[in-house]
Amino acid sequence: MTQPADVHEALSLRPLAAADWDAWYDALEVAFGETESPERRALWRALTEVDRSLGVWDGSVPVGSAGAFSFRMAVPGGALLPTAGVTMVGVLPTHRRRGVLTALMRHQLDEVHERGESLAVLTASQPAIYGRYGYGLASWQLAVRIDRSRVQVARTGSADDRIRLRLADPARASAACERLYARRVSLRPGMLARSPGWEQLPLLDAPSEREGHTALQCVLAEDQRDGELLGYARYSLRAAWQHAGAAGQVRVREVTTATPEAAAALWAYLLELDLTETVVAENLPVDDPLLHLVSDPRRLSSQLSDSLFVRLVEVGDALSSRRYAAPLDVVLEVADEFCPWNAGRWRLHSAGRLAGAQCEPTDAPADLALSVRELGSAYLGGCTLAALAAAGLVRELRPGALAEASAAFAWDVAPWLPHGF
Ligand SMILES: CC(=O)SCCNC(=O)CCNC(=O)[C@H](O)C(C)(C)COP(=O)(O)OP(=O)(O)OC[C@H]1O[C@@H](n2cnc3c(N)ncnc32)[C@H](O)[C@@H]1OP(=O)(O)O
């Protein structure tokens, strides 16, 4: 049992034992002020990595929690890096603002470091919390609410000739959908390879969470010549009738595609379903093809939200493991109070996107100064160093270094996290 100095002395921080899970998770639900459906709770129970889960106890009562998943996350260039997915963070209202979260984050990041994972990621219930621990906002997501009577979807080329749409049972089609998903992961930074069990998350369909919609449905887009799966969409429908006619809603859970034709065919299908008026989707990439397929993008009523926060746990490894869009040779002066092993000057050089990169400690003069949080924001290529510099968060110490590094860190595919965890 460890007793971190910054946790109140009556409290103890220790790893979870499997038998503690229910009480530990009950405390988490109290912290969040919500009760999950039995189906969702059972799934999180099955996915919990008990040996990576921490609790803070006041006597025998769990009062704080933090977990981690052993993910492999895509980074620019396509490598899948071992990544800690920080999750299930909560402190009981009776025990807040006494340093419990900070003690959990300290313990967790030390463990992540010891395991050799060079990245930690999370989605934040409140984005103001995690910057102090070195997490930077690295990806955004779009929610759309489409008045479908006001938009048409462009039909590209001979798409209709080559794509066949077929309804399938979501569970029975899951293995084929997962194979397609797995082929897409390395192509978009921020996507997570799915370990066994995680294929259940996109299928989760608790009746109490349907909000009047049907059970989950799945439509497959196949090449009609050979039946190859080129895309799929998971969605549900909610019927509604008004005096003027049908006003149903399509709730899109996921659209995953391997070709432009499949994307056009699936979005046209979803936007042309009879008896519906509105199509909603909560989580699309900011560069989703839908933005360019519709006749009137303003009618998407899109809303941007923060999504994935990234923390470089081992700066040298993390920066060496991604690709860069352009050649660069810069010395970064990195500030990192919470993980001081990262602080100092690092020389990062790469011959460009087809070459690897090296990042080593150096005594050479710095070209750019920034904190590890900004490195996290820029890491997946979705936030430029130039934008961070414009906010005063990156300082250019050698003229020209900012433009060089900003172009190299950017990436042509926007980072995106397909689902929460
Ligand atoms: C990855 C995820 O799971 S995100 C989910 C996070 N959980 C929740 O939002 C559930 C509801 N909230 C809670 O459980 C708690 O309030 C927590 C976990 C957010 C904070 O726990 P606490 O033990 O109170 O935090 P702790 O006392 O260690 O505070 C650490 C620092 O964060 C700050 N902080 C804590 N909560 C917040 C907040 N909601 N907004 C802004 N700052 C915050 C504190 O002021 C403190 O700042 P300091 O370092 O400058 O002194």
Automatic annotation (TrEMBL):
<keyword id="KW-0012">Acyltransferase</keyword>
<dbReference type="InterPro" id="IPR000182">
    <property type="entry name" value="GNAT_dom"/>
</dbReference>
<dbReference type="InterPro" id="IPR016181">
    <property type="entry name" value="Acyl_CoA_acyltransferase"/>
</dbReference>
<dbReference type="GO" id="GO:0034069">
    <property type="term" value="F:aminoglycoside N-acetyltransferase activity"/>
</dbReference>
<feature type="binding site">
    <location>
        <begin position="97"/>
        <end position="102"/>
    </location>
    <ligand>
        <name>acetyl-CoA</name>
    </ligand>
</feature>
<dbReference type="Pfam" id="PF13530">
    <property type="entry name" value="SCP2_2"/>
</dbReference>
<feature type="domain" description="N-acetyltransferase">
    <location>
        <begin position="11"/>
        <end position="170"/>
    </location>
</feature>
<protein>
    <submittedName>
        <fullName>Putative acetyltransferase</fullName>
    </submittedName>
</protein>
<keyword id="KW-0808">Transferase</keyword>
<comment type="subunit">
    <text>Homohexamer; trimer of dimers.</text>
</comment>
<dbReference type="InterPro" id="IPR051554">
    <property type="entry name" value="Acetyltransferase_Eis"/>
</dbReference>
<dbReference type="InterPro" id="IPR036527">
    <property type="entry name" value="SCP2_sterol-bd_dom_sf"/>
</dbReference>
<dbReference type="InterPro" id="IPR025559">
    <property type="entry name" value="Eis_dom"/>
</dbReference>
<dbReference type="GO" id="GO:0030649">
    <property type="term" value="P:aminoglycoside antibiotic catabolic process"/>
</dbReference>
<dbReference type="InterPro" id="IPR041380">
    <property type="entry name" value="Acetyltransf_17"/>
</dbReference>
<dbReference type="Pfam" id="PF17668">
    <property type="entry name" value="Acetyltransf_17"/>
</dbReference>
<comment type="similarity">
    <text>Belongs to the acetyltransferase Eis family.</text>
</comment>
<feature type="active site" description="Proton acceptor; via carboxylate">
    <location>
        <position position="421"/>
    </location>
</feature>
<dbReference type="Pfam" id="PF13527">
    <property type="entry name" value="Acetyltransf_9"/>
</dbReference>
<feature type="active site" description="Proton donor">
    <location>
        <position position="130"/>
    </location>
</feature>
<dbReference type="InterPro" id="IPR022902">
    <property type="entry name" value="NAcTrfase_Eis"/>
</dbReference>
<feature type="binding site">
    <location>
        <begin position="89"/>
        <end position="91"/>
    </location>
    <ligand>
        <name>acetyl-CoA</name>
    </ligand>
</feature>
